[in-house]
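A reminder from the course coordinator: this example appears on the midterm review sheet, so study it carefully.

Given structure:
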């Protein structure tokens, strides 16, 4: 599971690099599908990862609003800062945690029980899903997207 997190983090950094060559107007333009703009999608990825991992750690998420991260540099810094906490949790993950139960309160007030393993895999799949959306938007801009290949990234070393 750790390898898939490392894959996501590596691809995310490559998307931040990609964004540095695109105008801020293009990065903030509302797009069809997804959660809005390219930059907001990257913020959303960081926010969701941090929020779910904090739920598993039984801590509250302390993220501010997207309005505080309106540049690639600010968002990259936030991602790097939160990565320290998230990465520590992921590296400390053991199979013993797989079936622990998270009692989650949904936005509508209802509750649900999820296994920790289910949540970890959701966080991985969530980012991959949004990376696919970023790839489509990149092509709409006439630009090559970041490679989504898992192989040849040196992740098994």
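Designed residues:
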């Amino acid at each position: 599971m750790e390898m898939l997190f490392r894959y996501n983090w590596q691809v995310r950094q490559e998307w931040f690099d990609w964004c540095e060559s695109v105008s801020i107007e293009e990065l903030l333009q509302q797009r069809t599908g997804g959660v809005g703009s390219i930059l907001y999608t990257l913020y959303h990825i960081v926010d969701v990862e941090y929020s779910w991992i904090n739920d598993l750690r039984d801590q509250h998420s302390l993220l501010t609003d997207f309005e505080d991260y309106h540049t690639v540099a600010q968002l990259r810094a936030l991602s790097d800062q939160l990565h320290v906490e998230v990465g520590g949790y992921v590296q400390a993950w053991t199979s013993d945690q797989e079936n622990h139960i998270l009692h989650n309160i949904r936005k509508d007030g209802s509750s649900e029980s999820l296994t920790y393993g289910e949540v970890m895999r959701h966080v991985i799949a969530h980012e991959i899903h949004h990376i696919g959306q970023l790839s489509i938007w990149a092509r709409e801009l006439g630009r090559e997207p970041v490679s989504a290949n898992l192989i040849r990234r040196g992740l098994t070393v």
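The chain has a mean pLDDT of 94. The beta strands are 101-105, 111-115.
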